[in-house]
Amino acid sequence: MKPVRIVGAGALGREVFAALSVLGEEILCFLVEPGLIRESVHGVAVHEIARGEGAQGDARYVLAVGVNEARRKLVQTLGPRAEYACVVHPAATIGPYVDISPGAMVIGRVSMTTDIAVGRHALINPGCNISHDCRIRDFASLGPGVSLAGRVTIEEGANLGVGAVVAPGVVVGAWSTIGAGAVVIRNVEPGSTVVGVPARPIIRRQPAKDA
Ligand SMILES: CC(C)(COP(=O)(O)OP(=O)(O)OC[C@H]1O[C@@H](n2cnc3c(N)ncnc32)[C@H](O)[C@@H]1OP(=O)(O)O)[C@@H](O)C(=O)NCCC(=O)NCCS
């Protein structure tokens, strides 16, 4: 197996580092934006991510950046030749017929039963419970403790806050945001933000007009 470069050296970068270390993977370095350079993280060198050169073929990459849209852009930065490692923490319980795509991150104690697909660069945080026949598309992320009932689809780039619960068969639209603690019982429109129990679109108050 080729060693790994971890893109991002923040909280998620360190969590990915921890998972890969437990798995016995060799980590070459962290890669960060120029303004975030520091000497090392947990004894591993931190380098600037090279612009315009694309990925190097000597390693696999993990995009350990929490913002879903940022991971999508990094895929473009690294180019089509980049190879991605899939990170599945050994504490996760993964049933049969679960397909986890390259670049996906399963961080810590997560349960997935059966017949589940996890897309590229999707992020699944500790404590998530994912039931049968769920689809979690590319770049989506589940915050800590999210529960998905059976047959749920989380479309590309959707972002579920900590502790959100999604009822059976619901489709959470692409690049939508689900608030922390929300209970989602109906389909969510792409690009929208929903909060609460049951989850409803967020209502922004208009600023008061001048008298
Ligand atoms: C939903 C969320 C993204 C909205 O953030 P925001 O756009 O900055 O919204 P605001 O904080 O301005 O809140 C707008 C309104 O929604 C309410 N609201 C925000 N989040 C809420 C939530 N999770 N549940 C219920 N109501 C919520 C606020 O109370 C506010 O209501 P008000 O106007 O009546 O006072 C954010 O609150 C949230 O829940 N993020 C989840 C973060 C998370 O879990 N990350 C996981 C990291 S691993």
What are the main properties of this structure?
binds coenzyme A; 2 helices; 211 residues; mainly beta; eight-stranded mixed beta sheet; 24 strands; single chain; Rossmann fold; six-stranded parallel beta sheet; globular; UDP N-Acetylglucosamine Acyltransferase, domain 1
SS-derived structural category: mainly beta
> How much of the sequence is in beta strands?
25-35%
Total DSSP E strands:
24
pLDDT < 50 stretches: none
Query: What is the N-to-C order of secondary-structure elements (H for helix, E for strand)?
Result: EHEEEEHEEEEEEEEEEEEEEEEEEE
Q: Mean of residue pLDDT?
A: 95
Largest sheet: 8 strands, mixed
CATH class of the largest domain: Mainly Beta
Strand order of the largest sheet: 6-9-12-15-18-21-23-24
CATH superfamily of the largest domain: Hexapeptide repeat proteins
Radius of gyration, in Å, reads: 18 Å
- The CATH topology assignment of the largest domain is UDP N-Acetylglucosamine Acyltransferase, domain 1
Number of domain units: 2
End-to-end Cα distance, whole Å, is 68 Å
Helix content: 10-25%
| Small molecules (ligands, ions, cofactors) in the structure | coenzyme A
